[in-house]
Amino acid sequence: MTLVSFFHRFIGPPPPPQVVRPLSSWTPSDRYWAPTIDSFLRRGRFSTALSAGAWRTERCEVQPRHAGAHAAIELSPGEWLWSAWVTATVSGPERDDERLAVQDFLAGAAAWRPLHPGFVQPQLAREDASASTTVDRLLASSLPDDVRDLVTGALDQSVIDDRLCVLVLVDRPAPKAADALRAWLDVDPAQGMEAPQDWAQQWIEGRVYRRWAQHGTTFGFSHHAGVCFSAKPPPWMTSLFEPRSDPDAPPARGAYFDLALLAFTEAALLAISQGAALTPGRGERGAPTEARSALRRLRSTFSTAADQGRALLRTWRRAIDEDLRSCDGASLATGEDGS
Predict the structure, then answer these.
(1) 182-206 pLDDT, tens per residue?
(2) Where are the alpha helices (DSSP H) in 194-254?
(3) CA–CA separation, 149 vs 339, rounded Å?
(4) Which among 3, 23, 68, 52 is positioned nearest to 243, based on CA atoms?
(5) pLDDT classification of 117: cutoffs 50, 70, 90
(6) What is the band of 79 on the pLDDT scale with cuts at 50, 70, 90?
(7) Are 107 and 98 in contact (CB under 8 A)?
(8) Residues 6 or more apart in contact with residue 240 via CB below 8 angstroms
């Protein structure tokens, strides 16, 4: 079983009013994030459990599980940075085809448009043949009632490009070959994935977290992907990758999903701060000054009392900064030389 959550960032309207239970009302064991980050992640967040039919490609079956949306921050009057997501289980492929199965689903849903001249979009079938499988309609049909009508018209306003960001939990140890690991973290079509092992080893340096490798668990990160390989993950670990569909669920539940939501929001803020946010047909969007200020607030505050949580976040942030470094070598996070 592979658990995949895909995230689409876009510019949308202000969120509807919402009452969020304060972090102080939870016992310490039920908390995970420090107050500022917890407030950021839970405020303006709407989610639901799904009972939709499965999608299929030639390699796999994809069963949707959860959907939701999060209004992160107001960038300019009436324009907010949003993330929307759908979480699903992927089953059926042989182990060597797991990565290709996830790619097939994303590409078939018109969510992955690699710039490769030989790329052929896979066919994606759904149990309900009349249902559209484009990502904007997929998300629109899955989002909670209180935000569906609000953000549906904004879903095609992508923050960076048309790719989705993905968080993937794979129930087996990480591949030993550097290029096989890189293939999960780098968005390219299968036809263009090959790379020399020495180059791949250099590329993944600093992107992989191996604290629990002796137990079969390894994390890897890029600015658009987070992957965890775990041999036979226990139920408690799987739950960390699943978003809370109940707003009254303990904040510690879904902590790794929240980690991805935070990291992908930061990546979007980095892009906006450089004027790189794109909306099809409308050009650059967003307010660089507000995005830069929001990013600094997120990165300057204490994130979590969990040591491993801070270590994972530091590793992911380094990968984001490296990937989104400007062409002259400046760090998007600080504007200083990133060497």
Answers:
(1) 878 875 555 555 677 788 888 889 9
(2) 197-204, 235-240
(3) 45
(4) 68
(5) very low
(6) confident
(7) no
(8) 253, 254, 255, 256, 257
